[in-house]
Amino acid sequence: MPVGTRGAVKGVAFDWLEAWDCRVVLANTYHLMARPGLATIEKAGGLHAYMGWPRALLTDSGGFQVMSLAARRRVSDEGVEFRSPEDGTRHFLTPQRAMELQSVFGVDVAMALDVCPAFPAERAEVEEACRRTLAWAERCRRAYSGPGLLFGIVQGGTHEDLRRKSAQDLVALDFPGYAIGGVAVGESKEAIREVTARTAALLPGDRPRYLMGVGTPADLLASVRAGIDLFDCVLPTRNGRMGHAYTSRGEVAIKHERFKEDLSPLDPDCACPVCRRHSRAYLRNLFVLKDFSAPMLLSMHNVHFYLGWMRRLREAIQGGRLGELEAPPEEKILDGA
Amino acid sequence: MPVGTRGAVKGVAFDWLEAWDCRVVLANTYHLMARPGLATIEKAGGLHAYMGWPRALLTDSGGFQVMSLAARRRVSDEGVEFRSPEDGTRHFLTPQRAMELQSVFGVDVAMALDVCPAFPAERAEVEEACRRTLAWAERCRRAYSGPGLLFGIVQGGTHEDLRRKSAQDLVALDFPGYAIGGVAVGESKEAIREVTARTAALLPGDRPRYLMGVGTPADLLASVRAGIDLFDCVLPTRNGRMGHAYTSRGEVAIKHERFKEDLSPLDPDCACPVCRRHSRAYLRNLFVLKDFSAPMLLSMHNVHFYLGWMRRLREAIQGGRLGELEAPPEEKILDGA
């Protein structure tokens, strides 16, 4: 799922996403409840109509952003009280409120409100987060009245027993889908993969399993092999805006001097509108000169690449070839063409 | 012609331009000779291949940018000596060099090197600019070896007699097309329209007439009525990035509070990918929050609007209805929907 924080996937017009077989976009409840606010989205007829995206939408619950972005937050069993970092106004996000927001949004997949502890955290803090996440999941289950599916979120940090308990408790609540949260918040790549594999194995195979906030193309392959079905990640757009491209041959840091005369496309195996027309030398020049089109073009390529990579993973599963599939190298490409 | 200063039309992928029947893009010789430089463009096989734009290209000569952007320039009969504002390197742009660049670029329309005086300027300075522009036009005519058409540029400021002499002198050189330069450099709208109409009437009707750097949709209509065939202007992209949209109902300054709850499209009569999906409220929110997609979406709409407006002008000419056509109002739209 490309990330559309404020209702737009940065630098990638929705017509491209539709042309590239993108089926779900993620949007952020935390950002949308602040601006434009629930009333405007309701007046528009829901989030699909407000955004102009008729295909599936998944919204996070706002919990992760409250923990990472909001100022002076105070978590209690009731919910999270916080101040908006923009205008200082006081807000109170409860499980009920998170469900009301996402119900009115009318999204296809809503997420339960969870508590995502920072990393590293004391074991006691992670235990407390799991306890609250479970209590809130029950309240969310009762409060959600939207047309979509409500997913529960497993917490537990890097503690195997806490992850197991969190997964089992949530599965007992019988959600139509499950997410693994609280990963990729600062742990090592090995820890992320281990937690993902162990947790995915505890979740029912007949329900969608969603790994939140991950990752590189190789991370996606490893996670799909572990049973994950859904991902969201800002890497293709955020890194695209910074001049970092994902390709089938490795990663291209386009601003590097070595691409100055390189007239080959970003990715010789790519049929996206950027690779069909433009060379690394052209894109590098636009980046060096801070041309507005440069971040747009790399974001387009990266999102196209990620969507194509996920399609290859789906086809490999269908063809029984997932074990043979090789991820693109994570090394940077060092030679010009 | 959308403006692709450094080889990209800021915020508008070339696939859109092709879909919207854009036939010519303008690129800036001054910027391209600095970066990536002639060698890279030659190595790519010309400017079309370097940019990834197979349709027609027009390049300016670099003269206007040297006058307006370069540091410590010195104009002599030989050409313009200047220092790059970026790295302080010394350059010498002569008519021969401007022709060499555009010949190797392989563009469809090349422009003669001219001297564009600042506005306001003493009459003597404008006379001197006309004299040099004519002398350089002769040298350009001999030096140009590219595959395209070389256009001469009429100067003369707001002086009727100087414009007439400049036009007549150039016409005597028998160029395949003519441009009116040195307009829209600070004069009043009335002065621009008067100079345009008077000068266009002095240029042969069987050759393309190109008004450089103009203007609003209403300016385009007035100029087409005066006989102008070709335009380039940064307004749709530059103003789009600033949050200013051109519509059939008037101009929309999208950041304004009044559009906060306005769920109607930028332009109810527009079928562009932005107006088909998004509301003013959605676009305003992205602009207020400085989302990267916001300037992109308004640039897309504006370029689509300009290309559509030019198509309407062509159809009106073909249908004998140019006199009846009404320009969209230049007033800002004051009411939300």
Brief overview:
Two copies of one chain form a homodimer. Chain A contains 13 helices and twelve strands.
Topology, please?
Two copies of one chain form a homodimer.
Chain A: H1 14-19, E1 24-27, H2 29-34, H3 38-44, H4 47-51, E2 56-59, H5 63-69, E3 71-75, E4 80-83, E5 90-93, H6 95-105, E6 109-111, H7 123-143, E7 149-154, H8 160-172, E8 177-180, H9 189-200, E9 209-211, H10 217-225, E10 230-231, H11 235-241, E11 244-247, E12 250-253, H12 280-288, H13 293-318
Parallel strand pairs in A: 1-2, 2-6, 6-7, 7-8, 8-9, 9-10
Antiparallel strand pairs in A: 3-4, 4-5, 11-12
Give an overview in words.
2 copies of one chain form a homodimer. The first copy, chain A, is α/β, with parallel strands linked by helices. Chain A contains 13 helices and 12 strands. In chain A, the strands form 3 sheets. Chain A has a 7-stranded parallel β-sheet. A 3-stranded antiparallel β-sheet of chain A has the order 3-4-5. A two-stranded antiparallel ribbon of chain A has the order 11-12. In chain A, helix 7 packs parallel to helix 8 and helix 12 packs across helix 13. The longest helix of chain A has 26 residues.
List keywords for this structure.
homodimer, 337 residues, alpha/beta, three-stranded antiparallel sheet, 41% helix
Average predicted local confidence, pLDDT of chain A: 96
The string of secondary-structure elements of chain A, in order, is HEHHHEHEEEHEHEHEHEHEHEEHH
Report strand % of chain A.
5-15%
The helical percent of chain A reads 40-55%
Integer-rounded radius of gyration of chain A: 20 Å
Strand elements of chain A, count: 12
How far apart the termini of chain A lie comes to 32 Å
What spatial form of chain A do the alpha-carbon principal axes imply? globular
For the biggest sheet of chain A, the summary is: 7 strands, parallel
